[in-house]
Amino acid sequence: MKIFLAGATGVIGRRLIPLLVQAGHEVAGTTRRPERTGSIAELGAAPVVVDVMDAAAVRAAVVDARPDAVVHQLTDLTGEDFEANSRLRVEGTRNLVDAAKAAGVGTMVAQSIAWLYLPGDTPATEIDPLDPSLPPYAGIAALENAVAEMTRGVVLRYGALYGPGTWYAPDGAIAQRVKAGSLRLAPAWTSFVHADDAAAAALAALDWPAGPVNVVDDEPATTAEWLPVYSAALGAPTPGNAGKHAAMTGRPVSNAKALGLGWKPRTPSWRAGFADMK
């Protein structure tokens, strides 16, 4: 197939290109920075310089590429600018969906997140409602609703990404906070997924039916469980406790649907993944 990969130089994009090429797909990968085209070409994709916020340019790029599927792995978290990331999810996704329709493309695979479910103790599945009170909700709702307009729109609700190049890498933003002692043990749920496994899910999703799919590892954990292991892997001091009155937040997330579709994480638990950082 011909694949139009939006976000080819991101954490997932640069892992996904080799997987797509090895699977026999022809890939056009986007970047808004001309200086990054070389890295895309080295991975085996045809570079496309386009700003996804420019609707006309996106439409022209997708029509010119004539893909069989569009894969949306765009984020904008430079400097932890969450408002910019939300705008990208809203406007950028809208532009990609409209461009795909104009080009006669019926399939889209898009990156979403798994930590928006309403709080609870049981693992959340894809039919459980999202929490509109959480800040990312507006952008995620817009993204998922737009992708649902496609003939076959698959939404990958990724867990917290870790691995090289992520915020959890030894030089990443979360690692810096841990080293600074600014995180505390707390009963807040996190469901992780290694970035390599997230990329593998994006490849597999080209053959999945429409709808959302949770892409997380096998072991949801509270901060009180994972943070000491992560801190030890970084060689950082053991974090302090958030206090006995700290409230449970978030929700564990189930990966049963993804497993049923044939995906299986090569790193089934963050425990092994964090240990590999040593």
From TrEMBL:
What SUPFAM superfamilies does the database record attribute to this sequence? NAD(P)-binding Rossmann-fold domains
Q: Where is the NAD-dependent epimerase/dehydratase domain?
A: 3-210
Matching entries from Gene3D superfamilies are given as:
NAD(P)-binding Rossmann-like Domain (3.40.50.720)
In terms of InterPro entries, this protein maps to: Epimerase_deHydtase, NAD(P)-bd_dom_sf, NAD(P)-dependent_oxidoreduct
**Superkingdom in the source lineage:** Bacteria
**Name the record gives this protein:** NAD(P)-dependent oxidoreductase
Q: What is the lineage of its organism?
A: Bacteria, Bacillati, Actinomycetota, Actinomycetes, Streptosporangiales
